[in-house]
Amino acid sequence: MTPLQFAVPIGALESISGAFPYVILGLVVANLLTRHLAYRRYKRAAEGGADTLSRYTPHVAVSALAILVSLLYLVIEPHSGMVISVLVVGTFVADVFEFEARQVEARNNLEIEKPKGAITASVVALLYALYIALFWVIEGPWEAIV
Questions:
Q1: Which helix (H) or strand (E) holds 90?
Q2: Among residues of the chain, what percentage have pLDDT more than 70?
Q3: Would 42 be classed as within a structural domain?
C-alpha cells in the first residue's frame, strides 16, 4: 500500500473518467466567456483609475476549477492529462500577467487592451480540449492514416 492511495480516490475517479474531457472542454469555453466579461469590466473600471481594478471573481473561480479538474484528469490519463494540465496552468499564468498589464494601463491612463496572450493560450487549450473530448468524431480516419 502506498500512502497516496488514500489521498486520491482513484476508484471513484475511474468511474467518472469518461466525463472528464467534456468537463474540461466546458471549463475552457467558460474560461473564454468569463475572460471576455472580465475584459469588459476592466474597461469600465479603468475609467475610475487603477485603484478600482480588481480581479473578476467568476473568471478566477472558473480558472481554479479548470486547473483542479485537469489535475484530476492527469491521475487517470497521464499523457493527455499532462498536456491539458500544462495548457490550463499556462492560461492561468497568462491571466495573472494580463491582469497586471491592465493595472499598469489604468495607472498610466492608457487604453485598456485585450488580453492577447491569455486569449492565445486559451485558444490552444481549447483546441486540445476539443481534441480529447471529440476524438471519437475523427477516430476512424485518424486510425486509417496513422
A1: helix 78-107
A2: 89
A3: yes
